[in-house]
Amino acid sequence: MITDQQRRSLLADGYLGVPDLFTPGEVAEVAQRLDGLFDRFADLPRASVLDLGGTGGEFGAEVPEILYPSSLSPGLRRTAVFQRGRALARRVLGAGTWFRFDHSIRKPPGCGYETVWHQDRVHKRSGLPERRLTIWIPTGSVGQEDGCMRYVPRSHLRGVLPHEPVPDRRGALRTVGVADTDAVDVPLPLGGAAMHLFETVHSAHSNSGESTRTAWILQFTQPRTVLPTATLLHRAIYFGRTRAWRGKGTG
Ligand SMILES: O=C(O)CCC(=O)C(=O)O
């Protein structure tokens, strides 16, 4: 768990790196489940997969992303990593905090794509006032060369900033005018996690290393509000499209 001082630092700077949130065994359980999904990436429901690489690249080979992996492999929500992540989010955001979304992004060795600068709030569908905490959990140690996260300190205090589409990148929206020199890298050992707030400007490095970089990313929100019709509809369509796959014994 995090200390009072770490909580204050997260709320003041908009991000926090914690080196020792989980044991290697706890992370290994998550890694095994995510690997099982990435191994079957081509067979996953269309609604569950994206590729964040170049528009001309081979889908699934560049920067594969799985949406709601814990719906496809429900055992993920029973892991110590999920339980502790949720407890941490409640400690940071307070009562009424609930799990909103998870995804997993993989960068194969030599992946030349950085995750572009952005604020998560820009991708928000509803106009509801809410606070969110993202917990980014790598399945191995990560340094700059492997694709660790980086943050612009205190950028969450600047409101929603202008974003622009990125030519030749699938679906990417980039915060306008961020300089790399504004940023702080957050390398992590195995068992560590990086976390940030909804408005914090962040990105992740490309993976010039020799290991596959996989991260499980959990988003928690507060307060728990009635979801708007469009969001409910979107979720219903997603869960409808993935129902058949969920029955295939992924635990
Ligand atoms: O894992 C990555 O490359 C980036 C993750 C990220 O930016 C996010 O979850 O908002």
From TrEMBL:
<dbReference type="GO" id="GO:0051213">
    <property type="term" value="F:dioxygenase activity"/>
</dbReference>
<keyword id="KW-0223">Dioxygenase</keyword>
<dbReference type="InterPro" id="IPR008775">
    <property type="entry name" value="Phytyl_CoA_dOase-like"/>
</dbReference>
<keyword id="KW-0560">Oxidoreductase</keyword>
<protein>
    <submittedName>
        <fullName>Phytanoyl-CoA dioxygenase (PhyH)</fullName>
    </submittedName>
</protein>
<dbReference type="Pfam" id="PF05721">
    <property type="entry name" value="PhyH"/>
</dbReference>
